[in-house]
Amino acid sequence: MDPSIQPEREPSYALYQKELFLLSQKGSHPEFSTRPDKLEELAKETLSKGGWLYASCNAGLGWTDRANREAFYRWRIVPRMLVDTTARDTTTELFGHKISAPIAFAPIGINKIYHPLGELNAAKVAGELNIPYCLSTAGSQPIEDVAKAAGTAPKFFQLYCPHDEELEDSLLQRAWDSGFDVCIMTLDTWQLAWRHEDIANSNYAFYRGIGAEIGLTDPVFRKRIKEAGLDPEKAEDMPQIGEKWIDNVWHGKAHTWEKVPKLIKKWKEISGGRPFLLKGIQHPDDAIKAVEVGCDGIVVSNHAGRQVDGAVGSLEVLPEIVDAVGDKCTILFDSGIRSAADVFKALALGAKAVLVGRLYVFGMGIAGEAGVRHVMKSLLAEFDILMNCAGVNKISDIKKSHLRYVEGVGGLSGTL
């Protein structure tokens, strides 16, 4: 860009648009479209059947996934004109980290079913882009390896509380020692929802011995499998080891509010006082309770429609949750993000940052690390350009006044 017209700024994600257009001068073009419906179609073609089903399945009939999209559709952006946005700034601060945009990688488990390198693909791209990477307890690469791949990116650890407290302690200590300095406890997955197609195909990678790498590299869990007479060096034992791992950290026990203060205390002692969040909040009363028990933040999320069928869309409840606790804790948003407009709307309604999940998983399934990079750089470029076109200079300028709510849904159809 001509610096006399557009001054240099860092980061300038909008330049990725020009980079992609300039491929035409080499007789080329991007490998694939990042339009969400096209991205999803291509991922379906490239992923294994099991990978596609696990990435795409929702709870029940998928009404909550649809509710997420309908909620975004009802809020419309009102652009403002003749605002000098040539030197706009997409950066923001989150939990003491200056990040390049208010966008983070959502925690998603068993990435190896999408690509052999799994979580290492996304973690590396997060490091390149200086946006947070959140690792799931159900991840399929060791905590330490993911941390190394992410480099200097802010690293958050998403905790599924094991029923074995010694294992819980070990996971938290490993996360902290590896550079993960924010802990996010997910609340809505003590039991997998009824996901019709996954069940019809017996599609659960853990029970086939895939995805237990975080457990297999943990001294406490290795002790437990030895006590059970299982050997990770024996291929025939791996399905039972995978079953033992995920049944310990996901299934069979629903925690209560009594658990949270103890866990906060434990994490604060390990980390020297770093932030602790709860993910899965959908009701203002739960948000208020989270603040009362000492949480530094919450993630407004319905697990992307994968856990409770027929539930409210996350964006529907975000405004009332912000009204209830927005000045008392940091609010992140998750579930249904498909575009820069979605990011903008969630920020305008009070979220500090958003978590993006399925988009990068689809990119990973299509082209591994390069696919994740293309998807996330495209989203960041689209967001940068949207700020320009909507007349917004910096993240803190994005307000509810930039939106208008429209009753009803008329005309919403297809994949959004």
UniProtKB/TrEMBL annotation:
Catalytic residues as annotated in Swiss-Prot or TrEMBL: 303 (proton acceptor)
InterPro entries for the chain: Aldolase_TIM, Alpha-hydoxy_acid_DH_FMN, FMN-dep_DH, FMN_HAD
Cross-referenced Pfam families: FMN_dh
Cofactor entry: FMN
Keyword line: Flavoprotein, FMN, Oxidoreductase
Location of the FMN hydroxy acid dehydrogenase domain: 28-408
Claim: Flavoprotein is one of the keywords in the record: yes
PROSITE patterns linked: FMN_HYDROXY_ACID_DH_2
SUPFAM superfamilies referenced in this protein's UniProt entry, alphabetically: FMN-linked oxidoreductases
Binding site for glyoxylate: 54, 160, 195, 303, 306
PANTHER family linked to this entry: L-LACTATE DEHYDROGENASE (AFU_ORTHOLOGUE AFUA_4G07050), S -2-HYDROXY-ACID OXIDASE-RELATED
Family statement drawn from the similarity comment of this UniProt entry: Belongs to the FMN-dependent alpha-hydroxy acid dehydrogenase family.
Name of the molecule in the record: FMN hydroxy acid dehydrogenase domain-containing protein
